[in-house]
Amino acid sequence: TIERGAVIAADDLAQVRVGTDPALHPVPADQLDQVVGQRAAVDVAGGAMLTANSVTDAVVPDGNNSVVGVALSPAQAPGLNLRTGDHVRVVVTPAQGESAPAGAPPVSDATVAGVHVMPETGQMIVDVLVPHADAAVLAARAATGNVALVLDSRDR
Description:
Number of helices: 2
Structural class: mainly beta
Largest sheet: 5 strands, antiparallel
Number of strands: 7
Distance between the termini: 26 Å
Strand order of the largest sheet: 3-6-5-4-7
Order of helices and strands: HEEEEEEHE
């Protein structure tokens, strides 16, 4: 398995024969040397076929951004499956027993960097990409559990 963001090494790759199917777009064997040193754009399971969309030269987070993990119950997240690149807002919600604030609640604009579910708790962990200046505030808000996530756009 090659985890998303990991640098791809030559020993991570193997050449195999695949049947010709116009729906498949694997990286050709003669181009594997161009893949080595790039980063995995997605998690690549062992034995999976590598495509051009599986690799990137982008580093996440880059020098101006941070990744903040936000743990959410099903009631705190949209019912749609979130995808890497989705534009979202993390909205501060009142603590249990508190009333809703007058006016608009504080929000943090973010981009989804990854999503996974914790098998032990069933909580969804959404890794969001935010500017450095917003990361500490968002992390502190997320740590309280009093947040909800709003999906704004899938425009990439």
